[in-house]
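Checklist before submission:
- one chain only
- standard amino acids only
- sequence pasted in full

Submission:
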Amino acid sequence: MQTPKSSFARQGDIVVIEEAATLLARSTMRDQTITVKARIRLLSKAEGGRASPIRGSFRPNHNFFGADDREMTIGQIDLPDNAELQPGASIDLAMTFLNWPGLEGQIYPGREWRIQEGARLIGTGTVLEVLPAGNGLTVET
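Returned file contents:
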């Protein structure tokens, strides 16, 4: 039994629709993130920070609004392979925040924010530069 030609067209349409959906999702994801070059500093253990370094990908809470505010955003800190950031140390790197309404106005060069694990302050960040959308995560020292 042969399949009617119209069903082939429909199958082709589905592929085209799936490809279009994938492209739309990719462009939407770029619109939903903000990438910055930032200086990240972990507090030392004596300052109340972590006792151990961070390695690889680290996704703590990022608080732009103050110690008592629980409005936080998700941000990804990616260190290069085999690199670690010790408590008390700093690094300049590109990082990405998940965007939400109002966040874009909070991110500008010189802006400082709190890096937290839950409610506990473990570090600080300073925006050095807002990078163009779609810029990859690359580390600079």
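Reviewer check: Strands lie at 33-42, 54-55, 57-58, 61-63, 73-78, 84-85, 90-98, 112-117, 120-130.
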